[in-house]
Design brief:
It contains 28 helices and 28 strands. By secondary structure, it is an alpha+beta fold. It is an enzyme of class 3 (hydrolase). Its EC number is 3.4.11.2.
């Protein structure tokens, strides 16, 4: 009998009326779900009064007054606080000696009371430099110091003592002392700013109830723009040295549109009174939905020249994504980290919907299909696929399964559920959920239950099929014709494998297309709800026999489309005859799927691309297809010497096509920059690299093309990647010219990417030194630049060492470091030997953390894919 069961049995035998004692909390940096549940069962009505003193130096000090109700004082209670120096600890008015292990404080039962407790903790701590906790950055341009907080998934305790779990919501009252020229943003708008000795004291009123990871506080000498033209006051913050790269008008336009859209769609007004957005340096992710003080990574949203349409769409989409979280995530919050997928999936779905309906980017669902959704399909076909809903035993595992399945498969699933239930039914279910659980924590069943109630149907079977089973199904049209008419039509559904046998219910549209004088036109489409292995579609009987059938027309469903033989041939031969951009995108994707599955030779795909892409007039689709061309070029580069002859030949053709299109697009800035970006990413011959060098120097002028600072760095990076003569001197000169943080990062990337063994060795040492004083942002940049496709021989010099050290590094480094390292530093060289070596490491390194092991498995599978694509080619 297990010890816990035995203890419980004894308690029952003696008539005990309270729960048996919990095992002590594990002495490590993470919080288990079990310990979190035990704590939230005892603690309620949490209030924080937070006082911070910020000087701009490497350390800060704080004092937290934590008040809460406690159900009993029969057991110790822990408060999370990471790597701080505690200067005093008072529990219910009594000063006590801290029992503190650098991860959490343990309060003794005798110091606590059943009822209201007050704990006051004064402490000091180093600012973080890895993007979590209270991050500090010194601007290399002017020496100004900036700080910002980032707490997801569970890093609030890297800034202040806290019950760091989502289901212990609390209120936050904040006081911050800062240098005189600083400004402060938090969940509430400041109620007072006073002059004090050597600075200012900012006071913020008590907030509404929030989970710790949704609270934030950011401080520094930020430039601030304000817009009060809408229902809610809006502000935008950025570092002084990059303020000229910010276009406040775009930010405020999309923010105002989004707030209006969500207020109406959700039927619940925005709850947090004001709306601040901050561009911050060294940020780990794209953005973070802190309540009323959202942070955005500078690298994704700062541009030294006018934004392209694609960049503005990206900005609008991320603003909308984070804004959706203000309701779904901040107002109603998951109970534990296994609900993080629903947070992100819902925000991805709603962010795309809002961008499509509230901005000029009406084609946002097409962009979602070709970008985010394809990422989900790729992830869902990997050996590491997993259900959308997965257990998270500890905060150490919170981000293990945060990937394209979490964000994009989940969003796609919600999109098709909206089609299945009906748009208004879905919206009503969301509204009911937000109203019922406002300022509370909720679980998946609560959300699905609200949708089911609105639809008057039981969604438990749907939930099991879609959210608790992994894998993506394939659908295909099976039809026969007689006398030029369809005689029979069945929609077939296949499960991914015997290990993943689930067949799902879903509503899709089937589109029939015929070739005619006007191109490939839609002749008929019908909506069908299918389930099981086969679904007859009698509505199509008697329709004209099609030249092409697309069984997920307009992309309602989440399924891999397998074109029948006739439709595939039509797609390959008639792409230029398809008027509908979304259908054209889907057909291009079918061809690319054929490449990735080693069924369509890569050289055949490139031949089709060379014949069709120059005539593409849809800006969004052009970006999709040119991205696939770049991926193709990277595959050829990774294949090594055996592919060199074909790569040189087709590479020159791609260069010429892209450069000619760049010149031809001089009247359209968006198209010209998209084509030049393609040229930049395929340039590898001396001729093309020489053209880039001449463009940089001004010797070659492309009419209409503005060669600004961002583009200069991109060109310098490409020239250094191939060690073009004089490129090292160009790098040094540009580094001297651009002293900004972005310039330093770009210079580092261009240095590390050089095919120079000495440089690689030096930076391998820096990357492997876990005690380095270099900012993590620089280490991460170096990781991503070390071994680009085409530098396989250099990568092989350290491949064995990197693999042999993987387990040791994984055990010593934290998850933030390993997410970056494992994504770019595990060696793969597109050879059978490399595949075999990775397989051996998989067997050998059974004790890797979940995240690193996943990266190892994915690297192995993608290396296998590269070998298969190489083998399928017909030109060598």
């Amino acid at each position: 009998m297990k010890k816990s069961i035995l203890v419980a049995a004894i308690a029952l035998a003696f008539g005990a009326t309270h729960a048996y004692a919990q095992a002590p909390r594990a002495e490590n940096a993470f919080l288990s779900q079990e310990d979190a549940a035990a704590r939230s069962a005892r603690v309620s009505n949490v209030d924080y009064a937070l006082a911070f003193t910020l000087t701009g130096k490497e350390t800060f000090s704080g004092a937290t007054t934590l008040s809460f109700d406690l159900a009993d004082n029969k057991q110790p209670l822990t408060i999370d606080l990471d790597k701080a120096t505690i200067t005093s600890l008072t529990v219910n008015g009594k000063q006590v000696a801290p029992q503190y292990n650098q991860w959490f404080i343990t309060l003794a039962p005798q110091d606590l009371v059943a009822g209201r407790n007050t704990v006051v903790i004064a402490y000091q701590r180093l600012h973080s430099t890895n993007g979590e906790g209270l991050h500090r950055m010194v601007d290399p341009v002017d020496g100004r110091v900036y700080t910002y907080s980032h707490f997801e998934p569970a890093a609030a305790h890297q800034m202040f003592p806290v019950f760091d779990q989502p289901d212990l919501k609390g209120t936050y009252q904040v006081t911050v002392t800062t240098p005189a020229d600083w400004v402060v943003s938090s969940t509430m708008r400041e109620s007072g700013v006073q002059d004090v000795e050597n600075g200012k004291r900012w006071t913020f009123p008590r907030s509404k109830k929030l989970s710790p990871y949704n609270f934030s506080m950011h401080a520094g000498p930020y430039k601030v723009w304000e817009d009060n033209s809408g229902k809610y006051p809006m502000r935008l913050f950025a570092r002084q040295s990059v303020a000229s790269q910010v276009t406040p008008k775009d930010w405020f336009t999309y923010t105002k549109a989004g707030l209006g859209f969500f207020d109406q769609y959700f039927g619940v007004p925005y709850q947090f009174e004001k709306y601040d957005q901050l561009l911050v340096p060294d940020f780990l992710y794209g953005a973070m939905e802190n309540a009323a003080a959202i942070t955005f990574a500078e690298r994704g949203f700062l541009y030294k020249e006018e934004m392209t349409a694609a960049q503005r769409q990206s900005l609008a989409g991320v603003i909308m994504h984070e804004m959706a979280h203000q309701w779904f995530g901040d107002l109603v919050t998951m109970k534990w980290w296994n609900g993080l997928w629903l947070n992100e999936s819902f925000a991805s779905f709603m962010g795309t919907l809002a961008t499509a309906e509230a901005t000029e980017f009406k084609q946002s669902w097409q962009s979602f299909y070709s970008g985010a959704k394809q990422g989900a399909y790729a992830q869902d076909q990997r050996v590491t696929t997993h259900p959308i809903e997965t257990p998270v035993p500890s905060t150490a595992n919170a981000f293990d399964n945060i990937d394209a399945i979490t964000y994009s498969k989940g969003a796609s699933t919600l999109k098709q559920l909206r089609h299945l239930l009906g748009e208004e039914v879905f919206r009503q279910g969301v509204h009911n959920y937000l109203v019922k659980y406002s300022y509370q924590n909720a679980k998946l069943d609560d959300f699905i239950g609200s949708l089911g109630e609105a639809a008057h149907r039981d969604l438990s079977g749907w939930t099991k099929e879609w959210l608790y089973e992994p894998g993506v199904n394939t659908i295909a049209a099976d039809f026969s014709c007689a006398g030029g008419k369809i005689a029979s039509f069945t929609l077939r559904q296949n499960a991914p494998s015997a290990e993943m046998p689930t067949l799902r219910e879903q509503r899709v549209q089937i589109g029939l297309f015929n070739l005619g004088a006007q191109g490939l036109g839609l002749s008929k489409n019908v909506a069908v709800t299918y389930k099981g292995a086969s679904t007859a579609v009698p509505e199509l009987k008697g329709a004209a026999c099609p030249d092409l059938v697309y069984p997920n027309y307009q992309d309602w469903g989440y399924a891999q489309v397998q074109l029948d033989k006739k439709s595939f041939a039509t797609a390959q031969a008639s792409l230029g005859k398809v008027d509908d951009p979304l259908l054209r995108s889907m057909l291009w994707q079918s061809l690319w799927d054929g490449v990735r599955e080693a069924k369509l030779p890569l050289d055949a795909f490139l031949k089709t691309a060379l014949a069709n892409v120059p005539a593409e007039k849809d800006y969004t689709l052009l970006g999709e297809v040119t991205n696939k061309i770049v991926f193709s070029f990277d595959y050829l580069s990774a294949m090594g010497p055996s592919a060199a002859k074909y790569k040189a030949k087709v590479g020159a053709q791609l260069e010429q096509m892209a450069f000619a299109a760049t010149q031809a697009a001089k009247g359209d800035n968006n198209f010209q920059r998209r084509w030049f970006s393609t040229f930049l990413h395929v340039a590898s011959t001396p001729v093309a690299l020489g053209q880039l060098s001449d463009i940089l120097s001004g010797k070659l002028v492309v009419p209409g093309l503005n060669v600004g600072q961002d583009l200069r760095w991109s060109i310098i990076n490409r020239l250094n990647r191939y060690a073009y003569p004089g490129s090292e001197a160009l790098l040094a000169a540009e580094q001297e010219r651009d002293k900004s943080d972005a310039g330093q990062q770009a210079a580092l990337a261009a240095t590390v990417i050089r095919p120079d063994g000495r440089i690689k060795e030096e930076w391998l040492g820096n990357i492997g030194d876990l005690k380095t004083k270099l900012p993590f942002s620089k280490i991460r940049t170096a990781m991503g630049s070390m071994f680009p496709p085409g530098q396989g021989a250099l990568g092989e010099l350290s491949a064995e060492l990197r693999l042999s050290n993987l387990s040791k590094l994984d055990a010593a480094a934290g998850p933030v470091y390993m997410r970056a390292y494992a994504a770019s530093m595990i060696p793969a060289s597109c050879t059978p030997a490399s595949v075999k070596r990775l397989q051996a490491e998989i067997v050998k390194s059974a004790n890797l953390s979940a995240g690193t092991r996943r990266s190892l498995l994915v690297t192995h599978q993608e290396d296998q894919r590269c070998v298969a694509i190489k083998k399928a080619m017909t030109v060598f």
